[in-house]
Amino acid sequence: MPTTLSQSNLPGLELIHRGKVRDVYSLPGKRLLIVATDRLSAFDVVLPDPIPGKGEMLTQISNFWFGKTAHIVPNHLLHTPLEEVLPKGTDLALYSKRAVVTKHLKPVPVEAIARGYLIGSGWKDYQATGSLCGIKLPVGLRQAEQLPEPIFTPSTKAAVGDHDENVSFDAVVSAVGKDLAEQVRDATLAIYKWAAEYAAKRGIIIADTKFEFGTDEDGKLYVMDEMLTPDSSRFWPADQYQVGISPPSYDKQFVRDYLEKLGWNKQPPAPKVPADVIAGTAAKYAEALQRLADIKLD
Ligand SMILES: Nc1ncnc2c1ncn2[C@@H]1O[C@H](COP(=O)(O)OP(=O)(O)OP(=O)(O)O)[C@@H](O)[C@H]1O
Ligand SMILES: [Mg+2]
């Protein structure tokens, strides 16, 4: 059975960040304990109802990809057993599949996005300007069309409540310096290309994805946060892909569609979501985990 957790409670540990999805605790030795809860955000607002098991599925998907791509880019995971860091008396079953111990890194202040297809804000920007993050694209591309080559389209990490904004590579260079900007771009594209090829063999298109990176005291770069999950990526079933329309996806589209139909103004508080939409969303995460990682959580 999946466990359900809307908010972690770990007395004795120092909570340093409660994000939309994850609760982050500080651990001695420049480490973090990151707990993926079952909170679901849509349009950057957290919904009132949890999606049972979602945090477990997200964590398992990320861990799968971190393992698979460690030869391309090092990642933040430490393999410390949870029993060693969770407070005495913690229900281990509730945390074992949704918590990880990681290096505590200094975040690179940029959302590192790779796009292989023209959709979402990329499609909007292209329609308005013919380019994307300052990268000129061929004319006449259609919605959801594959790009000639995957591109790095960074965006700023917005403050709470704001939406992220696409920026040019030069803006990243100004923010973090040329060397780090190039490392982030190259790592982003290398992981994306590898993962896209891997997923294609399993009938899934990774249309785009977002990574977060951080550096340690020596300035060494690691990929952190989550990796290639339905929350950070657009996964499309390859057999339903069609240029010209927005394909169905393994992500929050299900719940977004419901909310769009309601006509909610996308300002907090978010409306309650019916049981069938919650179950349908959970099933999407489970399907992504099974198809990509061959993992079935029961
Ligand atoms: N290894 C790491 N070192 C430092 N910070 C990390 C690490 N891994 C993840 N984080 C940070 O932990 C937080 C995870 O929480 P979550 O993704 O739920 O937050 P969020 O709502 O997306 O907030 P944010 O806007 O800050 O990303 C993020 O702020 C992420 O940048
Ligand atoms: Mg996040």
From TrEMBL:
Q: Which Gene3D superfamilies match?
A: ATP-grasp fold, B domain, Phosphorylase Kinase, domain 1
Q: What protein is this chain from? A: Phosphoribosylaminoimidazole-succinocarboxamide synthase
The entry's cellular-component GO terms read:
cytoplasm
Q: Record's superkingdom?
A: Bacteria
Which reaction is this enzyme known to catalyze? 5-amino-1-(5-phospho-D-ribosyl)imidazole-4-carboxylate + L-aspartate + ATP = (2S)-2-[5-amino-1-(5-phospho-beta-D-ribosyl)imidazole-4-carboxamido]succinate + ADP + phosphate + 2 H(+)
Specify the pathway. Purine metabolism; IMP biosynthesis via de novo pathway; 5-amino-1-(5-phospho-D-ribosyl)imidazole-4-carboxamide from 5-amino-1-(5-phospho-D-ribosyl)imidazole-4-carboxylate: step 1/2
Entry keyword set:
ATP-binding, Ligase, Nucleotide-binding, Purine biosynthesis
- Indicate yes or no for the key word Ligase: yes
Family annotation (InterPro entries): SAICAR_synt/ADE2_N, SAICAR_synth, SAICAR_synthetase_CS
One BP term from GO: 'de novo' IMP biosynthetic process
Q: Fetch the CDD domains from UniProt.
A: SAICAR_synt_Sc
Instruction: Give residue ranges for domain SAICAR synthetase/ADE2 N-terminal.
Output: 16-269
What the record says about family reads:
Belongs to the SAICAR synthetase family.
EC supergroup of this enzyme: ligase
One Pfam family linked to the record:
SAICAR_synt
Per the UniProt entry, what species is this protein from, by scientific name? Dyella dinghuensis
Q: Name one GO molecular function term.
A: ATP binding
PROSITE patterns assigned to the protein according to its UniProt record, in alphabetical order: SAICAR_SYNTHETASE_1 (PS01057), SAICAR_SYNTHETASE_2 (PS01058)
Stated EC number for the protein is 6.3.2.6
